Amino acid sequence: MSKLVDYLPDYYDKVVEMQKLMVGEQPVFDAVSEQADRILLNEFVMATDVDGLSMFENQFGMVASPTATVESRRYDILVRMLPPRPITIWYFKELVASFAIPAMVVVDSVKSRIDTLSEAHVITAEQVERLKYLLNVYTPSNLEQHIRTSYDVENRLPVYFGQAASICINSAVMPQAVNFS
């Protein structure tokens, strides 16, 4: 913070009234300076506070979930602010990487399917929600979407390999007519 006393001309150095006046004005100056800095920082999504996020959400017509964290709200706003680009698989992979979602994207065009693969201990529930949103917004509607997570599991149960046979017998009994005379 700047000290107002440092900006006084030299001829006020020995004037006690002016020194006391500057000391009294310093808290007001600091408060106004902090507010000006906050107004400037609220112009940038990554540096804004909760009030600034609310303003951005109001501008985009978004409704924030009461359980959403500040970071998830920030990423939702950033997704809305993305510049228009042709939607390609490379662009989608860039989006996933830029939002720090630890997932590998694989597209199977023959089966019309897009898979995202990640490890369960690395990806968070918030990142899965972001990934769902990106898949719903940036992939074609005819693609089947799968979000897959893998777990490292060790199994100590014995595994048996064998063969089992199942026999099914169908029998049919033909009715015979009985003559009563």
Task: Provide structural commentary.
This protein has 181 residues and is of the alpha+beta class. It has a domain at 84-151. It has helices spanning 16-41, 50-60, 70-81, 89-98, 125-138, and strands at residues 104-108, 113-119, 144-150. It has a three-stranded mixed sheet, with helices on one face.
Query: CA-to-CA gap between the ends?
Result: 122 Å
Largest sheet: 3 strands, mixed
Sum up the overall morphology in one term.
Answer: elongated
Q: Per DSSP, what share of the residues sits in E-state strands of 2 or more residues?
A: 5-15%
* Number of E strands: 3
Helix count equals 5
Q: What low-confidence regions span 5 or more consecutive residues with pLDDT below 50?
A: none
What structural category do the secondary elements indicate? Answer: alpha+beta
Give a concise summary.
This protein is of the alpha+beta class.
Can you lay out the helices and strands and say which pair or pack?
Elements: H1 16-41, H2 50-60, H3 70-81, H4 89-98, E1 104-108, E2 113-119, H5 125-138, E3 144-150
Parallel strand pairs: 2-3
Antiparallel strand pairs: 1-2
Helix pairs in contact: 2-3
List keywords for this structure.
alpha+beta; 3-stranded mixed beta sheet; about 180 residues
